[in-house]
Amino acid sequence: MFDEVFGMATLCAGNFHEGVRDTFGASIVADVLDPILKEIDSLRIFNAAFQQQSLSIDRTLADARTLQFKDRRWAQ
To answer: Quick count: other Cβ atoms within 10 Å of Cβ 44?
Structure first.
């Protein structure tokens, strides 16, 4: 999700940057567009770490359910 947003934002920022001809336009790039791109990139990194943790938790829960099921079978 954030990869698509980052790609679109990068493309738009690049198009804007190509048309910059003065210091005002350059300040928009430096003060607005670059920080937005950095924030989106941070969100991409955070999302990737979150997804990895989520998968790890899901695996651990599945293992715990398997052990719980085996314990019930042995108790009978």
So the answer is: 15
CB neighbour list of residue 72: distance below 8 Å, 6 or more residues apart: none
The amino acid that residue 70 corresponds to is: K
Longest dimension (CA), the chain: 80
Q: How confident is the model at residue 71 (pLDDT cuts 50, 70, 90)?
A: low
Token digits for 59?
């695996």
pTM for this structure?
A: 0.73
Residues sharing a CB contact under 8 Å with residue 46, sequence separation 6 or more, in sequence order: none
DSSP code at position 22: S
Cβ neighbours of residue 73 closer than 8 Å, sequence gap 6 or more: none
